[in-house]
Amino acid sequence: MIEVCTEAYVKGKSELVAKDPNDKGQLAKASNWLTKQLLFQVVGARYRNKEEAIEKWMLEAKLKQDKYDFTNEPEGVRCPSCNKPMHVRIKHLETLDDTLRMMFLFGCDTCDKKSWIYEDGQVYPSTPILCSKCQHEATISTIEQGKDKVVWKTSCSSCGFSEITTDDFTKSRIENEEREKEERSLLEKYQENYCSDTEGQKALEYIDALPVADEVYKEQLKKYDSQAYLSASSVKKLTIIELERILKPQFQKERYSNLVFSQPEIGRYIIVTFTIQDADPRHRSHNDLNNLKKLLKDTLERTNWRLMTDSLSNRLGYVTGRLKGYESERDIFELVGMKPEVKETKISSEQRSKYESGNVVQLAKIMGEIRGTQNARKHRLKNEPDGFLLEDDQVYSCSICGEQHTGYETWWNLDGSYCDDCHRNLSEKLIPNLGKRIDKDKTYFANWQLSSDSYFGIHASTARKLRKQDLLHGYDLTRKNGDVYFTVYLYSENQEFLKQYPQKERQKMIITDLLGEQMAI
Length: 521
Known about the structure:
Layout lengths: L1 H18 L4 H25 L1 H21 L15 E9 L6 E8 L5 E5 L20 E7 L3 E7 L6 E7 L1 H25 L2 H29 L1 H7 L6 H14 L2 E6 L3 E2 L3 E9 L7 H15 L4 E3 L5 E3 L2 E8 L3 H7 L13 H7 L3 H22 L7 E2 L5 E3 L6 E3 L3 E4 L2 E4 H8 L12 H4 E3 H5 L8 H9 L6 E4 L5 E7 L4 H6 L9 E3 L5 E3 L1
Antiparallel strand pairs: 1-2, 2-3, 4-5, 5-6, 7-9, 8-9, 9-12, 10-12, 11-12, 13-16, 14-15, 16-17, 18-20, 19-20, 21-22
């Protein structure tokens, strides 16, 4: 397997050099990864059958040895030329076919005639040596025989022609020795990593976990692609503090004040009683409670909180009610009137239980969640093509300034995720469209890179001076109060600056490829 991967790498490398030599490091990295994956699977598969394979090899070796040792030679073999008894000179076990067969080389002491005969008496058909001149049968004999060379003499009794032939095995011997040396080197290099019981067990568990990982990944994709998930994901999961934050302004608009929550009842749901004071003497009728109920329903509609049925009351200006909080995924589905789709799985519960906590399956789950979430967001873009707030508790890094904010302050579209300030700067066209996040390093550089020794190494005062001299052109991103918090510089607009202050070449990582050569990536 190592040789196959190495040959493929050498071929790919030679083709790549002709197209783009700069990609050699990436090819080496990919080849190393692929080789390791393939070897890991081969190791696991062979380790699974290790005992069975060893037992099979031992049985085959015993059968061959017994066949060689205990097969009787044919009896009564006579020379086809002089009819004298022939005797065994050599015996050989033929293993080319599935059936093992013993062959015996009989020789005649009188006329030196030789013949190969199988154990059942069948004569092995031999092709006679013909004279190259007259095409009659000739004889061949050994003149000289050494370690790397055999000299043969072919003689014809019909026309008297003879010739000397030399077989030189030096080249093939050297090639075999080099191959054996290379195989020993590979064994020494990889034996500890791939031939121990510890590594074998690890590889076996890895390949056995792959089907589980694949199924878990598909389950996550299906989950996030379902209508039930899309509905449930649109629900804002509010904590009690966040709930208070959105209710207070709504109450105050209707002249209700002093919102207070009592101690919660914590079970499957979070149930909490709230009290507000009615500051408007006109709030006395049953219709006013209905209006308050509608206000709460509309305010809480897209959240995980609901007003409990018939819980509102107004006594002497004290309005009380009960709110129910939904927390678990199952309860959120219930809240939006959906049921999670039933999992159709191809793996057994034993497999899932054994491998689901392992790194391979957990990684597949995370990758499925990421891809599924991306797919769900792309579906949402059909109705909100300009993007939307993520509105969740996760923390995201802004694609432009790098500041971290929760999903409630993070705007998302296909180009990336942006904090409120960067999104506002883009929307108001205070800065140009900077493209996709993946193209960031090719599109622009930021103010922190100017002072970084890894990029330009320019002092902040020098950068300010260059901007005043109109040599350095930047776009300042501002907060709502006008404060500058970040600056971007387009490569396309700063070509003259880049000529005078070229960006430093970034330090590259060095890896060793399959040929043992070091590559920079």
